[in-house]
Design a protein that fits this description.
MFS_trans_sf, Sugar_transporter_CS, membrane, MFS transporter, Growth Hormone, Chain: A, 459 residues
């Protein structure tokens, strides 16, 4: 072991001959939860703005509203292309120097990029016709880099500090950041939309949620800087098992696990971004085709956002429920049954969307309930596929490659299928097809509940 690594190990362990210090349970819960809440808040305010204001603000020269929307979603997808790169970049340092420092860096990257988005002039500003969309793409790319490194670090912070037999339960804490971030972001947008005129909101009001993320970043940094390194990484240091190039090692020794993890997450990603981004656009679109845009449900924007928030409450509740279920029945069996339910759920899009307010709210509740049940165990499942000394990189690469195949293209494909069919029927078929792929991946993957977690390393 190098002198610096030995020093790090000694410091983290509390001194020579002393047992490793641990992070208190409450601190682990808060640090893993608050970080992902901030990261997903930042990510969702962009997703909401991409649906509601960015098409006209940054792409005013597009041919029609549908082209504006597709252009906005194309930039939305840039972050998903950046996320695998972020998982490699931050995974390298997370497996080399530790989880804590890397998590602080990922949070700063995401936070600074989000604040800068709130400062970009509109494309109609003189001299910014081409620069505004370009800067938006650059900031969106940085957001993706940050989130690419955030998720796996937060998952390891929770699961590598978990007591025996409770990794899936602890793993639900960072996952809970997704519904919390969504509710927070959309509540802020609702408040602004209510308090401001449409002109004020489009002119400057949309910037407030992006700029306000600075406060959340400061809080997140304060919590994370008080953490100790995780026990599993301290054991990697003590065993002199730190790898020089984690990404090369993980692709050489664990490429099958990367493929499995990528497709295990596929249905989760497609489901979530259909339930949020697509349903919002379909819900607020006029009931008759206009200017090349397909017909939707005709809801007022704020009314549909409240319906989404109600659905996301179920997302949060069933994220927590999924942890004990995955511990009791095993991750694989739990996810197989949930994925079968997602396949069947894809066939409900047309009848439920056509059933009025109750049908639409039922669809949102069912979709987000399934989202909680499938998303919750992932913070345990994906890291359990990889050895400790490449776990940050391996789990992050699998998670974020899946984001490219699932989330990056899901809104774009859904809008195109909706325009082609004039209804969401093909969107439901798309969801079911992606869930079938996930089901096959699960059937070909072993159970990971009892895997050795703190001591296994790749050779």
């Amino acid at each position: 072991m190098s002198t610096s690594a030995a020093s790090t190990a000694g410091t983290a362990s509390g001194g020579q001959g002393e047992p490793p210090a641990g992070n208190p349970r409450g601190r682990v819960v808060v640090a893993s939860l608050i970080g992902t809440s901030i990261e997903f808040y930042d990510f969702y305010i962009y997703a909401t703005a991409a649906s509601l204001v960015f098409p006209a603000l940054f792409f005013p020269n597009a041919e029609d509203p549908t082209t504006q929307l597709l252009s906005s979603f194309a930039v939305f997808g840039v972050a998903f292309v950046a996320r695998p790169l972020g998982s490699v970049l931050f995974g390298h340092f997370g497996d080399r120097i530790g989880r804590k420092t890397t998590l602080v860096a990922s949070l700063l990257t995401m936070g600074i990029a989000t604040i800068l988005i709130g400062l970009i002039p509109a494309a109609s500003t003189p001299g910014w016709a081409f620069a505004a969309p370009a800067v938006l793409v650059l900031c969106r790319f940085a957001q993706g880099l940050g989130l690419g490194g955030e998720w796996s670090g937060a998952a390891l912070l929770a699961t590598e500090n978990a007591p025996q037999g409770k990794r899936a339960i602890y793993g639900t804490f960072p996952q809970l950041g997704a519904p919390i971030g969504f509710i927070l972001a959309n509540t802020v947008f609702i408040a602004l939309s209510t308090a401001l005129t449409p002109e004020q909101f489009a002119d400057w009001g949309w910037r407030i949620p992006f700029l306000a993320s600075a406060i959340l970043v400061i809080v997140g940094l304060w919590v994370r800087l008080s953490l100790l390194e995780t026990p599993a990484f301290r054991k990697v240091l003590e065993a002199e098992a730190v790898t020089k190039v984690p990404v090369a090692r993980v692709f050489r020794t664990s490429w099958k696990q990367i493929v499995s993890g990528t497709f295990i997450m596929l249905a989760t990603y497609v489901l979530f971004y259909l339930m949020t981004t697509f349903t919002l656009n379909y819900g607020v679109a006029p009931t008759a085709p206009t200017d090349g845009a397909p017909a939707g449900l005709g809801y007022e924007k704020i009314d549909f956002l409240w319906m989404l928030i109600i659905g996301v409450v179920f997302f949060g509740v069933f994220t927590l429920v999924s942890g004990p279920l995955a511990e009791r029945f095993g991750r694989r069996k739990h996810l197989i049954w949930v994925t079968v339910a997602i396949i069947l759920f894809g066939g409900s899009f047309v009848p439920l969307f056509a059933a009025g307010d109750l049908g639409v709210q039922t669809l949102l509740i069912l979709g987000f309930t399934l989202m909680g049940l499938t998303f919750g165990p992932m913070a345990a499942v994906l890291p359990e596929l990889f050895p400790s000394n490449v776990r940050y990189t391996g789990s992050g690469v699998a998670y974020n490659l899946s984001s490219v195949l699932g989330a990056a293209v899901a809104p774009f494909i859904a809008v195109w299928l909706w325009a082609q069919a004039g209804s969401p029927v093909l969107v439901g078929v798309y969801l079911s097809a992606m869930a079938v792929i996930t089901l096959v991946a699960l059937l070909m993957t072993r159970e990971t509940r009892d895997v050795e977690y703190d001591t296994n390393v790749s050779a």
